[in-house]
Protein: Tektin
Amino acid sequence: MARLWQDPSKFHPSEWATANRMQHVSTESQKSRSECMIAESWRLLDEIEKATQKIQSDVNKKIEQRREEIKFWKQELDNKLEQIVHETEVLLTFKNRLERALESCKEPLVIAQKCLLYRQRRVGIDLVYDEVEQELVKEAEVLQGIIALLGHTLEQTNEQIRQNRSAKYNLEMDLKDKFTALTIDNYCARLTSNTPDIIYADNAVKTEGNFVSPEDWIDFSNINVEKADKQRNNSLALRALIDNILSQTANDIRKQCEVVNVAFRNRVKEVKDAKHKLETLLAMVMDESASQEKNIALLKKAIADKEGPVKVAQTRLEARNHCPNVELCYDRVQYSLMKEVQEINKNIQRQDTLAQAETELKGLSRRQLSLEEEIKVKENSLYIDEVLCMQMRESVYINNF
Structure:
């Protein structure tokens, strides 16, 4: 009967007890594993937190180091920019000095050339290649050489200014980038896990593209600094050269100008002395001409005074030649008359001095004309040198460039 009432689908009490034990064991095992997992998770979370804090702290330090590096190079670039800007401004003043010096040389050159042209108007023997002309030619050559030198130096200065501005531009662009980078890194340094505007950026982690190495980054700014230093040093050297050129050229122009002026003064004195001597000679010739004219007048009067006696003597001889026969005697009267005629004729013949005197007078007249012409030549030369040239040269004044 007991077997008839036992349901085959029911478990045995021992199985029930075993199943309960198994549930307990399994639950305890699961609980144990879960506790281990929780402990491991806490350890891992703590480890991750510490690692995250450490790496973030390290990144913060590196950001700060980077900011200091950028600040250092920014300061270097700022210093070099200030130096190159100042140097360029100073060089521009030297450029202005060069331009003024170049302009100042034009008038003296024009005056020297005008003096040479004016002196071509000298005439006669005064058209001489004298010391004045030699020094004027030298002055024109000196001025032309100086103008060429100043022009070449001005070209060098313009090129150096261009190089300075190129270095300035590179520094400004580098500074602009440094300012942007510093702004970005300052922003990064302020970021924390609690900053409200932080985001996920999946594509932010990349190293390809336009990234450069730290060495290249340093080299780039260093090259800009070195270029600025090089151009500044070149500019300093050029300024020293310009200063020397301006000083030397001003001295050369002044020296040659004074040499020309001294030559002019000496030449004017020399021509005045020559003119004075010619005027003395002219006065002497004119006095001599007056004396010769008086002499000719006396000679003519003397000849005229002998015409009566010679006519008387010759008339007497002519009359006595008509004596008849033996009365035509070569007596003492005849002898005396013939002697008188011969003596008078002889004295008259001696009066050919009149022709010589007249010849000398003509010579003196020619000499007078020649001296007067030569005096006019000297007056013309004095007018050219003393009035046209020397007065024009008084406007030449060479200041220090």
Notes: The CA atoms of residues 97 and 401 lie 6 Å apart.
